[in-house]
Amino acid sequence: MSTVVQLEYVGDLAPYDEEEAALAEAGASLTVVRAADGDALVEAAGDADVIWVEWTPHLTRDVLERLPKLGLAIRWGVGYEQIDVAAATELGIAVANAPAYCTEDVAEHALAMLLAVSRQVVFRDRQGQQGLWRHGPAKQKRLAGSTVGVVGLGRIGSHVAKVAAAFGATVLGYDPVVTSPSVRQVGFEELLASADFVSVHVPLTAETHHLFDADAFALMRPDATLVNTSRGGVVSQAALVEALDAGRLGAAALDVFEQEPLPADNPLRGRDNVILTPHEGANSPQSGRDLRRAVYGATVEWLRTGWTDAIVNPQVRPHARAGR
């Protein structure tokens, strides 16, 4: 019987009845463990054929080299920076994700944050909760006729672009890899200089780490808004704070951060022009069901056939460890 190990993070995915039933039909069992670090992970999952990764600990090269049976590592989500894909490929380990499970949810969250800034919803709510009524000016901005720049034109970014256009916004897109016929694509610098709102939808890679740094913020309009629902590391938090303090950026709406949870004393807190949500843009009952089915579905397919379309490193196939 094959062994699937779930690296549990906080326990909010339990119970795993649906997963266990699907795996049992494929001749596999599910073991749920928690591990504080890589050593504990190896001790708990040393015999695993498949590992499901929520958040931590990460599957680094050192960890992967000590998992001799591992054939498939799946990340619960779209991003998979928790797994060293290059090392996994060298070792014959397939890496998979759930690329489509939360497209609408994250796109809607990004647009909700964008609209909350443009209509000053959160700012006025904070005042209303204090008993204030139209206390001072609010900097509302009409989305129709504004320019929305979408950085990253994958599933989520393309959906944001589509809905923003439906609101009557002019949409510009930037993506060095993906071509979208429905979006006018421009260079990164042109997008930053033109957009009233910039919504970020790129994975965290060596190339995108701190894509938004001091130089990027210097190109943006001083009344522009940055919306980030991708990964915290795409934005230099120090540069963002500096830009806000200096008035070189109008507002920011963030669902993701370089350090999570966001520390209580973080300088982004307590600002009228900043909206913060706790990395939950992907969350909904519908997306949760989709995620579960994507993860165990890809696992069952791999166990039965030795492959699944959810694999992100297809170059591993000629020397992949057997899935059957």
TrEMBL record:
Which keywords describe this protein according to UniProt? Answer: Amino-acid biosynthesis, NAD, Oxidoreductase
One Pfam family per UniProt:
2-Hacid_dh_C
Which SUPFAM superfamilies does its entry note? Formate/glycerate dehydrogenase catalytic domain-like (SSF52283), NAD(P)-binding Rossmann-fold domains (SSF51735)
InterPro entries attached to this UniProt entry: CtBP (IPR043322), D-2-hydroxyacid_DH (IPR050857), D-isomer_2_OHA_DH_cat_dom (IPR006139), D-isomer_DH_CS (IPR029753), D-isomer_DH_CS1 (IPR029752), D-isomer_DH_NAD-bd (IPR006140), NAD(P)-bd_dom_sf (IPR036291)
What the entry lists under Gene3D superfamilies is as follows: NAD(P)-binding Rossmann-like Domain
Domain D-isomer specific 2-hydroxyacid dehydrogenase NAD-binding residues, every copy:
111-280
Question: What range(s) does the D-isomer specific 2-hydroxyacid dehydrogenase catalytic domain occupy?
Answer: 17-304
Per the record, the similarity remark reads: Belongs to the D-isomer specific 2-hydroxyacid dehydrogenase family.
Tell me the protein's name: 3-phosphoglycerate dehydrogenase
